[in-house]
Specification:
heterodimer; A: 226 residues; mainly alpha; 8 helices; 0% strand; B: 363 residues; alpha/beta; Immunoglobulin-like; Rossmann fold; six-stranded parallel β-sheet
């Protein structure tokens, strides 16, 4: 029963979801949208509690075991508690203050330290910093990719060289039709290869969905459904 | 009002729009009536005002004003079952001219979208092939599946980690459970976890999505149980990190640098963080096996990882690793479907180019 019920649910809801693709009637589409949006939101809300529990347990274990860089686990836990309090009781931004920032609340000592301010001034710059690292990683990856170790790598190197040269004025100065040729490489062979992969991905997605709906693939249940 | 507007036509001498039609929009969920008209031949027209009145109403309501080159409007505010009549008012700088009203029309929801018939037939053929080859596999027929280098390397990579006494890092992508690539990644995780349980290799599974985290934990737990090592399962090996994309990338990078896993699995859906993860992993000297259906990220993985599962190989991986005949049967069905599509493309191209048959219109 522990396995049959989820399998039955998946079978019924899977067929219903597929049917909604060809049935535009609100009686079907409405239920489908509720399943896709509302039900997933409710499940996410519950799983978020488990997620927060996981973070707390993971870092408490690190602190208890004095694992490498364990003091940073304190930083994570304190930040988690502070941002939760600010988010739950402080309102989203200064325009919509929560109980912490209303008259008499402790928020008067914090000024404009709302969750939105915290997010915009800490999370956003930190994320941008990580994103900026991509430029350096691209350079090192490009170096690795363009080493002509074998025939495929040599082809890649030549194609990349033509594309780069075709994208700058120097390319047209050296060989007049080079930008058009670079554009052709991008729109014809490159698109053909991409479409080939997309065909495979589309069929793979459908096959995986079918295997799950029909109960052939049970890996998501854990243990292969044995 | 209609009479007054008609009078304006006469006075100003502006030609109105003609041939106004109104009909229920086909293949939709109702509430929409398509209105079309033939534009006024008058050069001075600046636009058309679409007018509507419900059955029994005297007054005409203005629905919208559209540009002078427009001759179509979808009234999406119709009440199903109520009859409406439409007229179009041609407007110039100095005057307006109203058309003859359309016939009465009512919207209604449909039970079948005939525009998707081709997709439905294709899906049914695909389903038939999958089921057919699954039954073939069940009857014991030996099916040939081509070798996939990245998946052949899994056992070797796990053995390497065990010998080195280092953990395995498994990243199940950054997408939600609604993404099929994530489900494929979790299926592979189950097979990898069975092997780590067998070898006694530590496993680290950081998660970005809370639902994926809960499913991944259950998958790993069950894999350890089915491998006969439930005692070796540590709930802390699968944990939730954050839902912020780059914060997650920073956390996983930190794990790669601190824990120095011998093997990194990057499976599922990835975005801009793919290269950040793969390059950091490469810098630590780990064997890296990646798999994604994100075409934009594939070049990064091919460059920075030792093995890459391209597109559909990601979906075939769990069947390949488990050697489960039923799952292999589904892969066979998938291959035959590809062959069918390829054949249709070739025949369609020949017919369209040589005989001028508009094959593309069928789809």
């Amino acid at each position: 029963m522990q396995r049959r019920l989820p399998l039955l649910l998946v079978l019924v809801l899977g067929i219903f979801g597929a049917a909604a693709f060809v049935i535009p009637h609100p009686a079907v589409r409405g239920v489908d949208e509720v399943m896709r949006n509302d039900v997933i939101r409710i499940i996410t809300a519950f799983s978020l509690v488990l997620g927060v529990g996981s973070i707390i347990r993971h870092h408490l274990i690190k602190i208890r075991r004095k694992a490498e860089h364990w003091p940073f686990s304190w930083v994570t836990l304190i930040t988690l508690v502070v941002s939760a309090i600010l988010g739950l009781f402080g309102g989203i931004d200064p325009a919509s203050p929560g109980i912490l920032f209303r008259a008499g609340g402790v928020g008067r000592f914090l000024g404009t330290f709302h969750i939105q301010v915290l997010y915009e001034n800490m999370m956003v710059p930190l994320a941008a910093t990580m994103f900026a690292l991509l430029a350096f990683f691209m350079a090192s990856a490009a170096y690795r990719a363009f080493r002509a170790r074998n025939f495929e790598a040599t082809l890649l190197l030549i194609a990349a060289f033509i594309l780069m040269l075709g994208a700058v004025p120097l390319g047209r100065m050296l060989i007049k039709p080079l930008p058009e040729f670079a554009e052709w490489i991008l729109t014809v062979p490159n698109t053909a290869a991409k479409r080939g992969i997309m065909f495979g991905v589309g069929l793979g997605t459908m096959a995986t969905s079918l295997k799950i709906i029909l109960g052939i693939e049970r890996g998501w249940l854990g243990g292969g459904g044995k | 009002m209609f009479l007054a507007l008609t009078l304006a036509v006469t006075l100003a001498g502006i030609a109105p729009a003609s041939g106004v039609t109104a009909a229920d929009r086909p293949n939709d969920g109702g509430s929409t009536i398509q209105v079309t008209w033939t534009r006024s031949p008058d050069e001075g027209i600046i636009g058309y005002r679409v007018l509507r009145r419900a059955d029994g109403a005297v007054e005409w309501d203005t629905l919208t004003m559209v540009g002078r080159f427009i001759a179509r409007y979808n009234d999406q505010a119709a009440e199903d079952g109520t009859r409406y009549q439409y007229a179009v008012l041609a407007v110039s700088d100095t005057a307006a001219a109203v058309s003859e009203p359309s016939a009465w029309a009512a919207s209604k929801p449909q039970w079948y979208n005939s525009e998707r018939t081709t997709a439905l037939i294709g899906s049914l053929i695909f389903t038939f092939l999958i089921v057919f080859f699954t039954f073939q596999a069940r009857s014991g027929r030996k099916l040939f599946i081509r070798r996939i280098g990245g998946l052949d390397a899994v056992e070797e990579a796990l053995g390497r980690a065990t010998e080195m006494g280092r953990p395995i890092l498994y990243v199940p992508g950054l997408s939600s459970i609604a993404d099929v690539a994530t489900i494929a990644a979790l299926n592979i995780l189950g097979e990898v976890a069975k092997k780590t349980a067998k070898f006694g290799t530590p496993l680290i599974v950081p998660n970005r999505d809370p639902i994926v985290y809960t499913v991944a934990r259950e998958v790993v737990k069950e894999a350890y149980t089915s491998a006969g090592r439930p005692d070796a399962f540590n709930p802390d090996m699968v944990f939730y990190v954050t839902d912020q994309q780059f914060a997650y990338a920073a956390a996983v990078d930190g794990i790669m640098v601190r824990e120095k896993p011998a093997t990194n699995f990057l499976m599922g859906m990835f975005w801009a963080e793919s290269l950040i993860l793969a390059e950091t992993g490469a810098s630590t000297g780990a064997v890296q096996i990646a798999g994604t259906d994100a075409i934009g990220q594939l070049p990064f993985f091919i460059t920075a990882c030792d093995y890459t599962l391209i597109g559909e190989e990601l979906y075939a991986a769990s069947a390949y690793l488990s050697h489960e005949p039923l799952l292999l049967g589904a892969i066979k069905g998938q291959d035959w479907s590809k062959l069918l599509i390829l054949g249709l493309i070739i025949i369609g191209t020949i017919l369209q180019l040589t005989a001028g048959v508009p094959v593309i219109d069928i789809f």
